[in-house]
Amino acid sequence: MKHYILSITLFLALIGKSMAQEQKNLFEDSYSLLNEMLQDESKYTFKKAVFSVENAYFDGRLDTVFINDEIDLLTRLSRSLIQDRFLAYLEKDKPTVNKWASVYQVMNDTIPIYINDKLYRYQPFGYDFNDVFGHQNRENLFVSKLLVTRKGNCRSLPYLYKILCEELGTDAHLALAPNHVYIKHRSIKDGWYNTELTSGIFPIDAWIMASGYIHLDAITNGVYMKALNNKESIALLLIDLAENYNTKYPNNDGQFVLKCCTLAIKCYSNFANALLLKAETDKRLLAFVADEATFNTKLKQLEQQYAHIHEIGYRNMPESMYLNWLVSLKTERDAYENKKLNTISKQE
Prior knowledge:
Blueprint: H1 2-39, H2 46-57, H3 64-80, H4 94-108, E1 111-115, E2 118-122, E3 126-127, H5 143-149, E4 151-152, H6 156-167, E5 173-177, E6 180-187, E7 191-195, H7 205-209, H8 216-220, H9 230-248, H10 255-267, H11 272-286, H12 292-311, H13 319-331, H14 333-336, H15 339-345
Parallel strand pairs: 3-4
Antiparallel strand pairs: 1-2, 5-6, 6-7
Helix pairs in contact: 1-2, 1-9, 1-10, 2-9, 3-4, 3-6, 4-6, 5-6, 9-10, 10-11, 11-12
């Protein structure tokens, strides 16, 4: 009987180990997919990239049928709103601007919809001030959570916006500010302008700089306020993947995280979050270096990493100050809103 119990225990342990390895393999699969998109631009799709990262976190249990149905529904609604929009906008890029406007409306506006002569009101997405940074639950940062609850944050909202734009066959550039992600577009008439999904308005650059944590060097070096290309957007997802991995496996050996950081930095050299995560991971691993000479060499390298992060203009923004800064966009809307773009949006 004793041998039987030991056999069952050993069998269960082996099953558990096998399942854990399979779950970790999902992270490797997502990494491979992101890397493949970086190597072959024809395979790029932000939607597939985002949900591969989330599916790895969910151990392969992400409801992709629901996700695809929701994305398809939102895309069809966006497409239905394109007709006869922005009549005041007469430049040759009007078809593209109309697509941006339709996605903006789906994200932010209550829309009357008639089905079989019955009026329904589509409810837009809102901002979730609960667990903004995903400290309590990493899932609060996910687009899949946004699609289920209709509430999101400065990561999931712009990610979904970019997905919908690409589903309509146009682009949308992610951009970074301290602890924040937003959208940048460039039209013939207005040049570069910002679209803020957390509040549904078009803030001028002055609001972003008003945070007090954007050094001029950070702008010059593309740390903040840069319109990211598709490869740089994939870099963001690589760090999402690495941070998800750290959350799932807090006692990991750091190698997968460093691999994600290295690839992210390769395609976005001054991506502060990637540089910071690499430095923090190297710092954690330094505690396991026994040889004094190797320790001193790695310590010097670590000091150089932190010095470089400071030199490119990165400054840490306290989370409490970030929330106050975010709220200021609504409380001081008149000071920071792009009046011209807001006026145009109301002519839809």
